[in-house]
């Protein structure tokens, strides 16, 4: 019996020892991972929607030159890029036929300007319906682009443009556009008047049209904007943590978003890294 009680006491001591050791054991440290994110302070800026096009620089006023009579082309009397005045001779046409000789016909320029598109070769047959040259007034030139019907309606007179000619950036604005689109191509032309572009006449170019522009708006980087079932939101940083904040947006492009409501100028928002954090999380700013 005495041995039995001793055994019980030993068991109790062991159990108590184990319990005390668990109570006194140090709890393992839980490591908190703090994400490092990029940020930006909200301020007023500009945002625009831009579209790129390929075009050609032409005279604001220009005309194709047609011979008055049919015949064989003899020669041009000017070179491409030459400046001519109204009624200057552009080319000569041999209008002779077998058994009959005629005086050489002169092709005259109807306006003052620069001559280009001299594409007819000696001996080629020409007719009054065939243009032999182009003359353009070079005091005012345009970049002409062709735009699809669905986009043409959003192009308005006066909108800003940038024209790139061989790496040279020129400024311009939309001056005129087609009233109707071509039934076959479903495209319409748009003419952008260029500042200082006369020396680039008849050159190819690329045109950047600023279809919509807004100034003095809250524009944030596109990567800062997130979307889920609750709508569009950003993470606003304050006191080492972030708060998910629902926002209303306006104009957007591939780089920036206009914010119309939800945040204020001076707020700090998370940009790069916003896809790796959640509401209330502690973060470190890069």
TrEMBL record:
Multidrug resistance protein MdtA-like barrel-sandwich hybrid domain location: 61-131
All residue ranges annotated as the YknX-like C-terminal permuted SH3-like domain in the record: 218-284
InterPro entries xrefs: MdtA-like_BSH, YknX-like_C
Pfam families given in the database record: BSH_RND, YknX_C
Record GO terms (molecular function): efflux transmembrane transporter activity
Domain of life of the source: Bacteria
GO cellular component, one term: efflux pump complex
Signal peptide segment: none
Name of this protein: Efflux RND transporter periplasmic adaptor subunit
Protein species of origin: candidate division WOR-3 bacterium
Taxonomic lineage from the root: Bacteria, Bacteria division WOR-3
């Amino acid at each position: 019996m005495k041995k039995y009680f001793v055994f019980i006491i030993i068991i109790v001591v062991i159990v108590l020892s184990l319990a005390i050791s668990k109570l006194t054991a140090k709890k393992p440290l839980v490591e908190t991972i703090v994400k490092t994110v990029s940020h930006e302070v909200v301020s007023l800026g500009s945002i625009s929607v831009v579209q790129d096009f390929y075009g050609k620089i032409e005279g604001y006023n220009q005309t194709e030159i047609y011979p008055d009579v049919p015949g064989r082309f003899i020669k041009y009397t000017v070179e491409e890029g030459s400046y001519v005045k109204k009624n200057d001779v552009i080319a000569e046409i041999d209008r002779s036929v077998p058994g009959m000789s005629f005086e050489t016909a002169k092709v005259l320029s109807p306006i003052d300007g620069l001559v280009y598109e001299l594409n007819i070769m000696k001996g080629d047959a020409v007719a009054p319906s065939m243009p032999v040259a182009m003359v353009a007034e070079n005091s005012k030139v345009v970049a002409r682009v062709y735009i699809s019907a669905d986009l043409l309606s959003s192009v308005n007179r006066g909108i800003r443009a940038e024209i790139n000619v061989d790496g040279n950036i020129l400024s311009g604005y939309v001056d005129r556009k087609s009233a109707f689109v071509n039934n076959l191509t479903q495209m319409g032309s748009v003419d952008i008047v260029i500042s200082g572009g006369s020396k680039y006449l008849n050159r190819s170019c690329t045109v950047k049209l600023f279809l919509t522009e807004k100034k003095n708006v809250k524009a944030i980087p596109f990567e800062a904007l997130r979307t889920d079932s609750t709508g569009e939101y950003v993470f606003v940083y304050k006191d080492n943590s972030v708060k998910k904040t629902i926002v209303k947006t306006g104009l957007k492009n591939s780089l920036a978003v206009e914010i119309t409501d939800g945040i204020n100028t001076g707020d700090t928002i998370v940009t790069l890294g916003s896809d790796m954090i959640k509401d209330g999380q502690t973060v470190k700013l890069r």
